[in-house]
Each structure stands twice: as structure tokens, then as C-alpha cells.
Amino acid sequence: xxxxxxxxxxxxxxxxxxxxxxxxxxxxxxxxxxxxxxxxxxxxxxxxxxxxxxxxxxxxxxxxxxxxxxxxxxxxxxxxxxxxxxxxxxxxxxxxxxxxxxxxxxxxxxxxxxxxxxxxxxxxxxxxxxxxxxxxxxxxxxxxxxxxxxxxxxxxxxxxxxxxxxxxxxxxxxxxxxxxxxxxxxxxxxxxxxxxxxxxxxxxxxxxxxxxxxxxxxxxxxxxxxxxxxxxxxxxxxxxxxxxxxxxxxxxxxxxxxxxxxxxxxxxxxxxxxxxxxxxxxxxxxxxxxxxxxxxxxxxxxxxxxxxxxxxxxxxxxxxxxxxxxxxxxxxxxxxxxxxxxxxxxxxxxxxxxxxxxxxxxxxxxxxxxxxxxxxxxxxxxxxxxxxxxxxxxxxxxxxxxxxxxxxxxxxxxxxxxxxxxxxxxxxxxxxxxxxxxxxxxxxxxxxxxxxxxxxxx
Length: 458
Fold this sequence. Notes:
The protein is globular and about 70 Å long. By secondary structure, the chain is mostly helical. It folds into two domains: 5-154, no CATH class; 199-458, Orthogonal Bundle (hpI Integrase, Chain A), CATH 1.10.443. The chain is 41% helix and 10% strand. It is built from 14 helices and ten strands. It has a two-stranded antiparallel sheet. The chain has a two-stranded antiparallel ribbon with strand order 2-3.
């Protein structure tokens, strides 16, 4: 049994039923339900792309759907993809309970029979069988716990037995000055313990396992991109290698972020991303990425090329400054920003699918034909940037010069946007475990630059 997800709110194009502020409130028929957009209480003018959870008979699951709606109208509402993740967690929860005939509102005396503990047992089994990761299981449990907390605060729901026991754990972290401290975190006994994985030195733990590519592999990658003849992929992959930008950031860069080279007086340009900008970042964290001046010049030439103009002419955005730098041949963004008013309006939400298809199908095949074949993954480009930055900044610094090494560490932390400096330190430890000698980074970057500047796009 599967509880499907449907989109709840869809913007109407009929302007007859506008409210006093000009917002359209026309009801739209979606399936057998009439759906009316409305203003959220949290400051958002309109709740869009909100998932709804349906029962097997097609009726709306009231409690779950209202919880998702409440989160969507919070003052600092999660993104639509985050809401979708919450909904999927609740769908899995309800499906698991339904298969075993467990009532999500029941709280029997026996702990193992309570819905939350029953769910934990089922997820623990899947983790032990390596069907899902412990982090995935804990994410689903977190969605369930937050749902019940909302239920207890909003409804006359008073379970007779505890659905979990809260536990205060102390999480060690390193502050901005490098001192180790403990931060108290409230968790529950539903949490599934992760097995500590010893690092083999083959990867860096940073939002998952990242594998920095060697200089030879990066060169092979650029050469494969040149052979592919795909201008947009060539430029975007370069952008990620030289700025450390994630896929969502790379593909939401706008024309206004690219400067006329005549006005660039330094060796790089600064681009603000995240909250308050049109460029996406993880968790909407505000930070700045820096584009090398030579790459900015390439991008400026591209956005003034006939190739880009043909694509932009087909796009729905007509404001030049707000236009995405990278568009498909049909004028669609490769990754539609979470701030884009067109997101989810009558078409599938684009979040880099065609980029991943290009990487797995065409690019991987070309890489396999090089002298240094390797398994490619876009997010590893971020690790490449970090290692390259370390190489560049560590040049000439003796191993025993702790102050200068720490200055490099904090510099790289800022460029990567790491909240915890220990994440940045893992890249330094990776270098030590792999016994990698400092490379002539300046010469290497000049080599990549010459490869890039020789590329001709039409």
C-alpha cells in the first residue's frame, strides 16, 4: 500500500478573484478537490508546491496533511523539497504501521506495541540489513517525532503512554577560536545509533563521502568536457571546480552576477549567494563565492553569445539581470531556484536531472576513454576546489608554523562555507593520510585556464 503525494496549491492565471493586494485566489480543480491558494501567516504571500498525503481510498489524511501545511506556512518555512522529505517520511511511517495493523493514534501499555517504537524496530531491521542508512532512518524518525509534537500542541491529542523518552546528549564541537566545547542537544530514545566508520583515507566526510580528484584526473575531466562539445556543462563544471559551488548554486547563478571584465580590477569577483539573493545555497546560508577573473571573462563572453541569447529568448524570465546564466536549449533552467515564482507551476521541478544524466551517460563514457579513468560525481568537484585551495595557500609554509597553517584553515573554511572547522580539518588529514605532496598549484591552475580559454563555443 502506498500513500501518494499530490500538489496542493497551484497558482491561478485568472485575475478576476484577486484580493485587495492583487493576489489571485481563484480555486483550481485538482483531481476531485477544489484547491484555493491563500496567504500564509508566516510572511509568505503564497504557499506553493505543498505536498498532501492521501489515504488509500483517495481521501486526504487530515492530520498529516495539516501538519505539512502548518510547516509550509511557518514564518521561516522550509523549501518545497524539504516539505516533500517530511511528507515522504510520514508516508513511510503510515505504510509501515498499516502493514502491521498498528494505529498511529494508539498508545498501548507495552512499549514495543506503541507506534513510534514499532516503527523504530522496523527501521532498525532495515539498517541492519543495509537496506537504508542509519542517517536515513533517523531522518524519518525525526519527521515522525516533529509530527507528534505538533499534534500535541494543536489537537486534543493526549497519549496515555509516552511515545518516546527525551535524552540530552552533549555533542563536542570546535568553536571559531579552535577550542573544543560541548553543546547540549535534545534527542530521543527512538534514535538509531550509527556504527562508527573508520576512515580509510580514501575519501573526506563532508555532506557524505567526497573523493577529491588528483590534478591528472581534473585535467582529464576538462579534456573530456571539451570533447563533449557541451558548452553549458563545460562552463558549469569549471565554475564548481574553481569556486566550490554546489550544483544548486552553480545552476542558479544569474546574469547580474557576471561582471564586465573591463570593470574587474582584481584577480577574482565576489558573488553573494543564499538568503537575500537570487542564487541558491544549502539551507539558504548567506556567504560569498569568488570567481577567478579569467573565468568571469569566459562567462561574460558566454552570456553575450548568440548561443545564450537563443536560449534566453525562449525563457519565461525576461529581466536580463534575473536571467539564469545557464539554460537548456528550450530556455528552461537546469536547476530552478527555490525563490523562482515559476517553480512547480504547471511543469516538473527541474533540479539538475539533465546535468546528472549528462554526467552519468556521456561524460563518464568520455572519462573512461582517457589515460586516467575514474568514477565521476558532480559533488566531488567541491572537494577538488577545497584541496586545490589548500595547495595554493600552503605553498611555502613550514609544517611547524601552526599560526600560518591555522590561518589557511580558517581561510579555506570561509571559502567552503563550513559551519564547523573540524569539517575543513578533514581535508588536511586526508592529505596527510594519502601522503600527498604539495603540488605546484599555480602552474596547474594556469594549465586548466589555458585549456578552458582555448574552448570555442558557438
